[in-house]
Design a protein that fits this description.
The protein is of the alpha+beta class. Helix content is 60%, strand content 14%. Strands 5, 6, 7, 8, 9 and 10 form a 6-stranded antiparallel beta sheet that branches. Strand 5 and strand 6 form a beta hairpin. Helix 5 packs antiparallel against helix 6 and helix 10 packs across helix 11. The longest helix is centred in the N-terminal third of the chain and has 47 residues. The model has no long low-confidence stretch (mean pLDDT 87).
Amino acid sequence: MKFRQWFKSGDPWIWMIGGALSVSVIMVAGLLLLIAVRGFGHFWPAALVEITVTETDGSQSVLLCERVESETLPADRIREAGRFVDDDTLVVTRHLFKVGNRDLTGRDFVWYLDEQLSDWRYPDDAMMVERREWGNFYGFPLRIEEDGRVVAGGQRLWAELQDRIERANELHARIEQIERHEIGRLNKQLEDIRLAERGLDHRGVTGAEREAAMADLAARRTVLEAEYEDLRAERNALQAQAERDVLHARTADGQETAIALDDIVMVSQNNALGLGGKLAFYWHRISDFITGFPREANTEGGIFPAIFGTVVMVLIMSVLVTPFGVLAAIYLREYARQGPVLRVIRVSVYNLAGVPSIVFGVFGLGFFVYLLGGSIDNLFFPERLPAPTFGTPGLFWASLTLALLTLPVVIVSTEEGLARIPRTVREGSLALGATKWETLWKVVVPLSAPAMMTGLILAVARAAGEVAPLMLVGVVKLAPSLPVDGEFPFVHLERKIMHLGFHIYDVGFQSPNVEAARPLVYATALTLVALILVLNLTAIAIRNRLREKYRSESD
């Protein structure tokens, strides 16, 4: 076959389409693989390296650290950075080490040229300590003291250390339970009493009614304050117990330091771990990342509040956008008079899908937060003013803004689904005596349900990944509490939330410790992708179930 005939046959276009699809799949798979490798690799217990560093002035120091990465560069690039390199050297290899001990050295990461380093040693008794503050500590354990008395050292030290850290973590969890939930509950009830007193002033209650109400509120306050004192005493006693044990350790350069066990999250001797021990520690760090709360300005700890906030916001958005989008599509397709006005409305809906998301954020801030939220505060929460309740960014306004953002997707998908229902189906239903509403509700809408679910899937995917509008209408760097708890009304729509997408932006681009934040960006991105995948797979499963159900019924 000659080239011209082969070109006219259309085969080149098929190959071009197949090639473009293959390249797209490879790029997406490569991106996911990169995120997965960097994200999962962050939690693997790296080997602890002991090295001797020789500076250009001849001074030497000993470090215990983790190697993060190595790279080979032209020597001129290193010279331009101000480092001395021999003139006859063309390329140099340098290593990035995580040295930890920020409270002692003031830095977490440092680059060293390969020629500055002695041989690398991997001591079995080297340990990594993950602390609640000041990042990791790298060194060697010496002894454990209980109230200033040595209780363990030598061979017994490591087993005793693990037991006492477990005890300290249990005490810390109880202290957090008291501070975060129980004292928080009392503070909310005391605040309610204060607002009730202000409410009496707003309503102008006087005389015997006011005295009776004030007496009741005073009695409630007395009970709550007594309960608060009991909790505070319990918390202080627990803190005293938690501060009882102290670990004394030595850094690689010989400095001795003391670390309260209450400040330790976990400790490990990575070089002494076998494969089973590394896998157990690996899983422990992953579960702590998924279920824990952030620390150290989001550069340490877990991302559970961000996962929870993202899921709750997407669920509320789905509840809001689905009925409005479906009803709008049904009206446009089934009831509206076809004509130029309807065509203008359709074009407007299509254009709405292309509006930049930050514009929706500005609209949500102005209309939902300031106008609607401010009006709600004036009508229903006057005693709380000038402190806003709904007149400030929060979960509900973030969900409503994203519902508005994804509304065109649901409308278009639902309309396409309604258009695919054969006309004979409608005519058959009407011929059997059904009204137009009965035909729509019992025949057309069920058959187009899979298309509606497709629109919802696309809406969920976009809503979960949006960041720009959320920065204006409800997402914050650190949320003091979750939007769902055991306090009435249980779902607090006015609270601010954390979001995985914003967490990635904050950790990756706002953190002063870039090297420490980089692996967290990959791990959080991987979590966000996995979360969107789970939400979409759930919606796809529901859609397929509906499709099979109505297909069998139509047969």
